[in-house]
């Protein structure tokens, strides 16, 4: 097994996750099998109880793991399926060591950070690195490890010590350290400054780790004299110093590394030059070119609670992007704070209220994502009502689906007090209720989590067609509340169809509105399984409906196996294939 460790210095937020994902993609393109591990030094067991304001979105895996959003980048770039064990936290390590101590596994010895915590970290890495994540048998060739935080943080010290020991343990030729650092350009002098990176590398070396490759973040490519200086003071060969300068979007990062032969340097350090083939990133390059060339906009109003922090909806944004690129449309996301749509805002700040409604009414499609808490709920209901009444393409996810049911019950069934018991426990018309198996005392890991099967009840519904006329689909969930099964028949008789249900038939998964261009709500989170070359079926449906080409997509997906779709955007014949709910391409950069 070979290991690539990605660390960060100077400041946080340099893009270690994207760098690690890009390295993995390049190694995959060289014919190697790759897995990933993200180390988060915080004390939380997992990311499940963290606020999106604090740490961005919580990414959910097939096995129900609630993990850091970087694992979403790994899955999207590498098209892999990770597990909760691929996200290692201080909380998990300490919990495992303390559990062993309580069972008497240490035979009365004094349990210490070194060697017990550091040994546990190394054992975890070795165990997880050998688990395949690509659906094939046998262990991967390379494990890319990202160490969260910044070198010098107190909380990451046990991991630094463990990784120092680990690099010595696996030996030269099996371990490559890529250090991501900042080379700022001061506006006063306009000169690239190397001192922050020098100090960062010096601290890294003092902790027992020596970088093999420097990945320097800067606004523009490093000048040759700057590379020479960094090489001299950081003891890294010039050919192993690469620049991660600002690019239009993150799809360029693997190409940036490829152009600077970063993969060659890594393969050399890992003694893999004889096993690897020439990196083939043709599909990725073509897809990136298409992304860069898009001109025709499609406007999607994102009606949410955390609109001030885009990382809160990172996977939703990526899924929208994947679908828009497949439809050859330039994605424009209009951020609408749900609370700004409410009547109270009209009285307090009428200008803000008007601006929010103008954005909503100017959109080609409306998306109401998941969330927790009652802030902005009424605004989301108003946005849902507007989409329903005005035939605007709509996708509601998790809470967005539940509120679509609440809005329908209020407006069509006449239950004025219809609500979710999450927001109004004593409502006389509980459309959404707490799931019987949920915990009312513990928050972490107690939701309905991970991949669950949804069975289609109506074979010719839009959702089933978008999934390639499948009889069922497996998607990832994260929720505590569900649509009240006692109200289903009344709601369906009024025109809102529950076209997807779980295996018992009592848990509602997909809802569609009859006689509407595209009004779909889902209890699950389809965004978590969207990939750059294989967009999520339901996001593709939203973008296609907002772009006016939904019928072409539905007709194509209704046929057996692969069907050629011509001219989905701007009348251009773009040779696309549609299969199993995913768009493919014959030579235009999307996966076959």
TrEMBL record:
UniProt signal peptide: none
Pathway(s) this gene product operates in, as recorded in its UniProt entry: Pyrimidine metabolism; CTP biosynthesis via de novo pathway; CTP from UDP: step 2/2
Keywords of the record: ATP-binding, Glutamine amidotransferase, Ligase, Nucleotide-binding, Pyrimidine biosynthesis
Domain CTP synthase N-terminal: 2-272
A Pfam short name: GATase
Reactions that this protein is recorded to catalyse: UTP + L-glutamine + ATP + H2O = CTP + L-glutamate + ADP + phosphate + 2 H(+)
Gene3D superfamilies hit by this protein: 3.40.50.880, P-loop containing nucleotide triphosphate hydrolases
Coiled-coil annotated spans: none
EC number(s) given by UniProt: 6.3.4.2
GO terms for biological process, alphabetical: 'de novo' CTP biosynthetic process; CTP biosynthetic process; pyrimidine nucleobase biosynthetic process
Glutamine amidotransferase domain location: 309-543
Enzyme class: ligase
UniProt-listed InterPro entries: Class_I_gatase-like, CTP_synthase, CTP_synthase_N, GATASE, GATase1_CTP_Synthase, P-loop_NTPase
GO molecular function: ATP binding; CTP synthase activity; identical protein binding
Function: Catalyzes the ATP-dependent amination of UTP to CTP with either L-glutamine or ammonia as the source of nitrogen.
Similarity comment: Belongs to the CTP synthase family.
Entry-linked NCBIfam families: PRK05380.1, PyrG
Name recorded for this polypeptide: CTP synthase
Organism the protein comes from: Brassica napus
